[in-house]
Structure prediction request, 147 residues.
Amino acid sequence: MARKYLLHLLLFVFFLFSRIAAMAQTDAIEHIWFNEEKTAKIQVYRAKDSKFYGKIIWLKEPDKNGKPKIDENNPDAKKRTQPILGLLILKGFEKAGSNTYDDGTIYDPKNGKTYSCKIKHNGKSLDVRGYVGISLLGRTTTWTLAE
Prediction:
């Protein structure tokens, strides 16, 4: 009886540690990336919900008219005063394959629009495709590793 209990305990501990180790591993896109124009750095990370998000952590030109750039084109008037630096622009991506991420959105502070988005990881670059409706009706930009 004690041997069976010990075996179950060891299996539970092994399972628990293997889950913790799997959660602690970083994913290939969890890095800091330059946008295509190299005017911003975006930090991509996995959140507690296991989805991937990205926020702007650096701007080549962080100020406009001597003040920090703000999200002046946001369709929500209440958000037009929030700074671009720290802005969450990638939301809710799920890993769909060994190097693809789907079901997310990308926000473009230049025009205040949010698009459906797919990401493909290519080693030291990301192909970020924003689109409306279907993926064929969109545009791809290439981000490069900044770290």
